[in-house]
Task: structure prediction
Amino acid sequence: MPWAYTRRDGKGSVHFHVDARFGLTKFVDDWTIYHELAHMALPYLGPEYRWLSEGFASYMQYQIMAQAGVLKGDLAENYHKKITVHLRWFNSDLTAKSIATRLMDNKQYPAAYWGSAYFFVLADNKLQKQHQISLPQLISLYQDCCRALDHNVEEVFASLDGMIKGKLFAELLDEFKNRPARELYPEVFNQ
Ligand SMILES: [Zn+2]
Result:
């Protein structure tokens, strides 16, 4: 399995250390490369928002894999499979942010990552319905206008909202910070 890390030195860069015993097919099928590439699309969001950063990379890794033609099955079934099993953590009166933060702190990474990826499932749905653009399309445009200028989650979301002339990201983050998670997450994943 390849092992990857990202370095943030102003220029986005991704470094890979690949065990040469794995063939190329094995390498490009592996999700870690796509996960690390997805991280590079946003600046560091701040220490409080590791859950959101991992949720973003988890959501986007499958979008990138689908575009590269290496995703097995369709996007909806992949998200369904990953997210469904973690919904129970969010069937709670606590906020989604506090639940995701606790899951990260407890090193329950699949639950933290995929539970937080649901933020971007919601964002993508709203973008497509209300703004006729998908999250991957918006993130692609973001690279050219704003990626180098933003330094925290508030700035990133202000840029994304500015691009669509709306408040979608700021409002969704506010809901994840303040509303009971059970009001945002379904009991059953129904994409
Ligand atoms: Zn990650």
User: Anything to note?
Assistant: The chain has one domain: 3-183. Strands lie at 3-9, 11-17. The chain has a mean pLDDT of 89. Residues 35, 39, 54, 57 surround zinc ion (CB under 6 Å).
